[in-house]
Design brief:
Length: 109
């Protein structure tokens, strides 16, 4: 039987999912899944500008998805919540399967 959640917990869950409902943040998280990166690394990897990356990192840090480690003049960002990796793997795997199925259907037509 599924666990019954209080309205307050459901609201918190919705807030956490809302953070993931932004493609720029997903690009950043996807890059961070390979390990720690600086803002410059993330700019290069995602194609976003520095201000945009910084803004989205702030949201991801506030939500507890990523952490920051300072070393000299550099800040290194990493995924801090392992559940985000699991969520991304579930969704990405499922969506990859759907795209492959759709491509196979189109090729067969």
């Amino acid at each position: 039987m599924p666990k019954q959640l209080s309205p307050e917990v459901i609201d918190l869950i919705a807030e956490r999912f809302a953070v993931l409902a932004e493609s720029a943040r997903l690009r950043i998280l996807n890059t961070l899944m390979a390990g720690e990166h600086t803002v410059s690394d993330l700019v290069s990897a995602t194609g976003l500008n520095q201000a945009n990356v910084s803004k989205h990192l702030r949201v991801l840090r506030t939500s507890g998805y990523v952490s920051r480690r300072k070393e000299g003049l550099f800040s290194f960002y990493a995924i801090d919540d392992p559940s985000v990796v699991v969520l991304c793997e579930i969704m990405c795997g499922r969506l990859e399967d759907e795209v492959a199925e759709q491509s196979a259907r189109l090729a067969a037509s």
